[in-house]
Design brief:
This protein is an alpha/beta fold. It is 39% helix and 18% strand. Helix 2 runs parallel beside helix 3, helix 7 packs across helix 16 and helix 8 runs parallel beside helix 11. The longest helix has 18 residues. The two termini are 41 Å apart.
Length: 434
Amino acid sequence: MILIDRALAQRESDGNPIGVALVGAGFMGRGLINQIVNSVPGMQISVVVNRTLEKAERALRDAGITDVRVVTDAAGVDAAVAAGAVAITTDHRAACSAESVDALVEATGAVEYGCHVVVDAIAARKDIVLMNAEVDGTVGPILSKRAKAAGVVLTGCDGDQPGVQMNLVRFVRGIGLTPLVCGNIKGLQDEYRTPATQAAFAAKWGQDPYMVTSFADGTKVSFEQAIVANATGMSVERRGMRGADHSGHVDELTGAYDVEELERQGGVVDYVVGAQPGPGVFVLATHDDPKQRHYLNLYKLGEGPLYSFYTPYHLCHFEVPNTVARAVEFRDAALEPLGAPTVEVVTVAKSDLPAGTVLDGLGGFHTYGVAERADTTAAQELLPIGVAEGCRTLRDIAKDEVLTYADVELPEGRLVDALRAEQAAELPAALQRA
């Protein structure tokens, strides 16, 4: 909250709160609404976009907002805000064009729809916070390029593990060390989980079964680590990352990697299962100054050559308002691609898939995602899982087989495919160190 708290306090004092449009009133969206309404001075919810208006209204009323107005266009949004109400609508374009909106938060987790939201928000010159690693990991580089050209901040969010990792990376770099591993701590990894196996967990926490399956089957962590790689220039050691089981403390991981190999690769992203303190993140880094290494040893970080830094939690929607303020007040992105992608998330069959199967969504019954080097993905024409939903298989696919573009027929007329083509043409996959 350094700088951000004072900037928001000034906004509150001036009677000029940052106006936020939220797209998606699901589990995370509801939490964010409650956080902004009840805990963030200097910021307000102007409009909530959701295909089911009842869910949007319920999320606002649960947060204590009693004046909720259904609108259909930007003028309606602005009129509602001027009257002290919060607007709800099914049309994201109304939010994008509203003068009372300073920043838009995309929290749907849907790739094709999310692409439309981001493209339209960029066109309307709105800053955008992505609570949608799936969009970022699929077409984030080209969307980021478009945003910069428009003078817009497009950023991943604080609170989710990628943003927490990037904050830690910036801290570590700021004290003079070189990050070589960015890591994510998971409690479970089972590629064959499905919405059926995760139904009880989803019901307990009020979450979507497909979403929680994507957490369990490795798809989510693959997206998360891909966007960290693309924001740092790092790569992966191998397809799927190392993903080791580790029941000890993350500090013990300083002895698990070959530093020379890490340096040769320019750093890697990874995850571990079962480590403590979870479910946080960690960064392993080196220092080339022996005098400073002496001090690091004195300060109980060990003798090196790798030093462990970690954050023992990630607080998701609690921290997203910080990202909004960073973007609007300071033009600072919490997480953004450096340029061309270095890591992609490719599609793997969760079970045998007969020819003619129409692939279901992320965290579904048909596929799971794994992280792969972007140059390998491009050279082998592997199918990114962000475009897999709705594709029809053209041949029998064996369980655990990685799909290629040649294996499927794409649905017609999708924006995500057009953006992928634009990304490949303008930002060809970055070549990794051999």
